Every structure is written in structure tokens, then in C-alpha cells.
Amino acid sequence: MITDNTQALINRLNTLEAAVIADVMVAMGFESHVLAPSFLSLGLNERLIGPAICAKGRVDAGIDAKPTFELDESVYPGGIVVIDADNCQKGALIGDNMAISMKNNGAIGFIVDGGIRDAVEFLTLKLPIFYKYKTPINAHKFFSFTDFEVPISIDGIWGAVTINPGDLIIADTDGCSIIPLQHAEQIITDSEIHQQTENSIKSALEKGETRKNASAKFPRLQHVKPCS
Length: 228
Description:
This protein is an alpha/beta fold. It has 7 helices and 13 strands.
């Protein structure tokens, strides 16, 4: 479940943009926390913000295989389901029935490092989703989930993104940033300042100032310190 402290962070994230968060995290040294451009998206007309509910699996899981129903049971209200598929290319990992079940348990969106099907239903259900490909075939003849609510790794733009259960996700039409929960307070505080700076630059530009002069008047990211 989402704690009061995490909900307070989510409320603050609702005033920010994924790009602003990404700028600050890069300045802090968290370069590998943005999803790779190989991810496609559906339903991102509005922002998607919430904690990660992590799952992982692989092809030929053998005795480590667990029922897919356990993923549904891991979901809590306000969470975003993130699936590490270990580069599975065998078919769709989730479809509409799984999505409906997880929405019933409170899921607000998905990140699937692999295939999906029933894409139209995700739009109908208003469940934003990042995914790698669409296919009509079900992968579960080959693929099985093995672990839930454990650290996972998925493709990022500058290397693999490690995601821990409860890490905060912010996504919009630009893409998706993953915020390590242990550093979320500082990242969000710095991002709020950066957002104000960006707004001031934009306001100056709209009044006719040059970008060079506006940027000199309102220096970007000067307040951000690298995370030790």
C-alpha cells in the first residue's frame, strides 16, 4: 500500500514534468533512470505517476515458475505494474483479462519490457502502458513469472534501469523517468526549483528576450548537487 509519505511525494510530482525530473536526476548522477526509446506507449494523454510494483520472469523458468495470479495479488491501489521479461520475445505477457483484474485491485498503469496484446482494451480501460511490441500470441507457453516485489532491471536510454519496489514513476508524453525512492525527497525538491527556473525562462522568451539572455538571467540546475 502507499504510505502517507509516499502519497505526499506523489502529490508534489503532480506539479512536475518528466523532463524536469530527468534533468535533475542527470545532474545528480542518476543517468540511467529513463526508459529506452525502444519502449512504445499507449494512453499517455495525461501523466502517469505512482510507485512501482515489480515483477520478473523468464523463458523456461522451470521449478521457479509461479502462477500469473500471484502478480494480480501483488497489486495495490495507485501502483504501476512493472514487468522485467528478461528479453522474452515469445509473445504477449499480459492482455485485457489480466489488465482488468489488476485494475480491479488498484493498478493505474503498466510498464512491460516485452509484448502485450488487446491494445485497444488498454485504451478503453484507461490504463496507460509502456511496452516493446504488440502480438496476438500469448507468451505463457514459454514464459513464466518467477518473482514479485523484488528489484528488477529493464532497458534504459543510457543503460539498464534498476527499479526497486516502491520507486516512483513519472511518465508523460515525453517518456518515463524512474525516481529512486530513497532519493525522492531531494530529487523532487530540486525539481520544483528547476521547474520554476524553466517557467521563468519560458516567460522571458514569450516576452521577446533571446534564449541566451534568458538563460543567463535564470541559470539552470545550479542548485543541484551530485549525489554521493
